[in-house]
């Protein structure tokens, strides 16, 4: 499909720079493409239980954001040091990470990068890595001198929360972001971007779901920095998705299949949990235990196998995520929904408001 079909104009003031307080006070646009009378309805996140039924299952992505934005100095024999930035996006081994580097063109295989600018990191003075591979679009593979938990500790010490570029361009990261840019149920470290639909949930909202008999289940997909990359191709067939690591365990798969078998619905919180569930589902809709790297690219025409409803934030124009929600609820419906959201003051992107989408029949 043509990528310009997924374009729209967003006023700058609609970009949220901080989350709503409390989190579940954010607005919720309910989008039902199968309803002729009330396709678009305005609510708040705390109203979510009103749209669920006992026996439904809500699926969350429990990945935890790490301080994956690293600043350092590139060293090369016979050349002066140069300041570089690296955003880690996928772990390749206990001592290796794939990263997006700036300025990428000036980095070569064999370069040594010293991150931390002399800050104390595990008593070594800095966190060092060697550029082992170089790919397209500024992607590199870094082999660190540290490995495993020691590397994790060092990254946590010198790294910064990798705020989305549309927020970072307007204000610097601060200590508040360490809490704001994390779901309350995050536990599996490895993401460099938050599963932002989950940022809306509070203990009281969880209690309300529990009280009405809605199941809660957790899967893990470590969101990569590729989620922020624009689609530069003119046609969706020419776009290359970056892979992300995730898994669905056997117990969770079995419970979700039981929900479907008794007529319950699977409600995914965020496009990340949806992409993982759809990666794990067979053509008959049965969800299998699954682990690995997924690069599933969902555009209109995709047949959803397992997910019935999707809670998600408002996404960037010409993005893979806007393509995904258009596949789920219909392109015309989502264009109308985004027009409504812009005209009525919804807040967009990572710290913005949310939507609840019914899958188009």
UniProtKB/TrEMBL annotation:
<comment type="pathway">
    <text>tRNA modification; tRNA-queuosine biosynthesis.</text>
</comment>
<keyword id="KW-0671">Queuosine biosynthesis</keyword>
<comment type="function">
    <text>Transfers and isomerizes the ribose moiety from AdoMet to the 7-aminomethyl group of 7-deazaguanine (preQ1-tRNA) to give epoxyqueuosine (oQ-tRNA).</text>
</comment>
<dbReference type="InterPro" id="IPR042118">
    <property type="entry name" value="QueA_dom1"/>
</dbReference>
<protein>
    <recommendedName>
        <fullName>S-adenosylmethionine:tRNA ribosyltransferase-isomerase</fullName>
        <ecNumber>2.4.99.17</ecNumber>
    </recommendedName>
</protein>
<keyword id="KW-0328">Glycosyltransferase</keyword>
<comment type="subunit">
    <text>Monomer.</text>
</comment>
<dbReference type="InterPro" id="IPR042119">
    <property type="entry name" value="QueA_dom2"/>
</dbReference>
<keyword id="KW-0949">S-adenosyl-L-methionine</keyword>
<dbReference type="GO" id="GO:0008616">
    <property type="term" value="P:tRNA queuosine(34) biosynthetic process"/>
</dbReference>
<comment type="similarity">
    <text>Belongs to the QueA family.</text>
</comment>
<keyword id="KW-0413">Isomerase</keyword>
<dbReference type="GO" id="GO:0051075">
    <property type="term" value="F:S-adenosylmethionine:tRNA ribosyltransferase-isomerase activity"/>
</dbReference>
<keyword id="KW-0963">Cytoplasm</keyword>
<dbReference type="InterPro" id="IPR036100">
    <property type="entry name" value="QueA_sf"/>
</dbReference>
<dbReference type="InterPro" id="IPR003699">
    <property type="entry name" value="QueA"/>
</dbReference>
<keyword id="KW-0808">Transferase</keyword>
<dbReference type="Pfam" id="PF02547">
    <property type="entry name" value="Queuosine_synth"/>
</dbReference>
<dbReference type="GO" id="GO:0005737">
    <property type="term" value="C:cytoplasm"/>
</dbReference>
